[in-house]
# Entry
Amino acid sequence: METIYLCIIIFLFVLAVFDLIVGVSNDAVNFLNSAVGAKAASFKTILFIAGIGIFIGASLSNGMMDIARHGIYQPEYFYFAEIMCILLAVMLTDVVLLDVFNSMGMPTSTTVSLVFELLGGTFALSLIKVHNSDTLGLGDLINTDKALSVIMAIFVSVAIAFFFGMLVQWLARVIFTFNYTKKMKYSIALFGGVAATAIIYFMLIKGLKDSSFMTPENKHWIQDNTLLLITVFFVFFTLLMQVLHWLKVNVFKVVVLMGTFALALAFAGNDLVNFIGVPLAGFSSFMDYTANGGGNPNGFLMTSLLGPAKTPWYFLIGAGAVMVYALCTSKKAHAVIKTSVDLSRQDEGEETFGSTPIARTVVRISMTLANGISRIMPSGSKEWFDSRFRKDEAIIADGAAFDLVRASVNLVLAGLLIALGTSLKLPLSTTYVTFMVAMGTSLADRAWGRDSAVYRITGVLSVIGGWFITAGAAFTFCFFVALVLHYGGNISIIVLMPDLPTDNFCTWNQLREMTASGLVEIGSHSYRLHNLGGDGGNFESGGANGVERRPNESDADFQTRVLDDIQLSHDRIAGGLGGVTCFAYPFGCSDPDAKALVDELFPVTLMTTPKCADLAKGLHDLPRFTVTMKTDLKKLLR
# Structure
């Protein structure tokens, strides 16, 4: 029995690697969109700075791992087998759900995904336990107070982030205007000092408060001397920024890059639980069970999960390395960044989203309100404010979506709001806060013109709606997966194992785009008949390869292994792309018992014979040249 659970633990960690990859693809927008949108540096430089922040944050942090241990469920009432069922259901759901949103280029919250998946899985198992018990109730099994506080903090932060983003950006623009280079003789030093101090405060309070090296003495010293530290940092950075300004260094770029590093560090340190918290909780449970469980997974209560998490350093180092790799290589991360930047760009352009009745109603009400305020405002005041928002004077780098003033406000304000939430014990979602701050600052900057406002609002509503859909889908899907795992046992684990997402393979949308170009045609090479077992996909000399019948293989076994596989490959491609024409035999090996079905399904079939085709004999069993064949081109071009 322990072997089975060991395999589940290994599988949880495998899923965690893919969860880190798809999670970073989603959350990269949190700390990259401001620097990328303002062109504060080259994209590689921004990635390098963010990568350092991620690695340091992950390596030094113990994270908020307790949410996966006892934040949602009450572990003292759950047996080891039940805890493993919940955790496995959460990981299976999380990988698939986040990858779907990333493939659509839509930012969503990994915190929301984790919380509602834990809720869904716990609720499913709790219903079963309550039904089978005369003493337990849902309130005993689910940590309802903690769950509600997490959910309320996440969604209230949306409105708070949007409002303060709009207010602070409006004040910053009134002070600096769009032609900010003429307005920063001395004000830039104060702005840089405040921004840098806020960033340092954010890193100490939010980013490093749960670091593995942070002792209780260090925490108490920082808390007791917070005001002194802030004063020293403010004086130092104000003087430093003034000197940099005199040396012709763009202080706004310095602030943006510092903010990118700080936000990346805090993201890795505090959101790491969203990716590896569940596998670590499972690992801790397994170690406790093997030491004290007595071989009875259905009778050993997981009281040990009530204790604080103690994450081994090698898990943190490994997670940091995977996150940096995902950040630098994931194309989906770039797509998610593009969505957030497009919705907040300063100028008009091709809009990603369309128009909806709700968006048109919001714009109409907003314009009526704005016209009403304009009528009662003194003409002199109105002209002065208008002079501060002359967008034709905007200093925006070539190809950038907005200027460095807005990028600085985005990063500093998002950091301060998250730090404030942490100090108040409110677990805010970094995705929600950073996205809504960016939307608020873009609105204050009058980036939403009369023509584009409808489309931008539609985009914002689509992203926010995606968050709520995430919550509902995470809860519902994990609820049913937990039920299937509970009643289906080990067989259900195999059935529910997903096709793990990876950037090494094309998505269906990418395949459709290639097919629509008319330059590429997608064919079938079977579903899994390329010797994908112990042979590792290699040709077996003298054996049965691809569709060939194995020695003494019955008709029923051949139907299941080969013919059903060919039919499945055809149906998957035809369903995804609208049709499929060509079939290439694996290893170029045919079989008379398979040929009839192949010829029926595919108008064109290909072998692996390096010679020119005689089309007079039809389009079946055509020879083909592969890229690995050392063939003289004269033979092909004669």
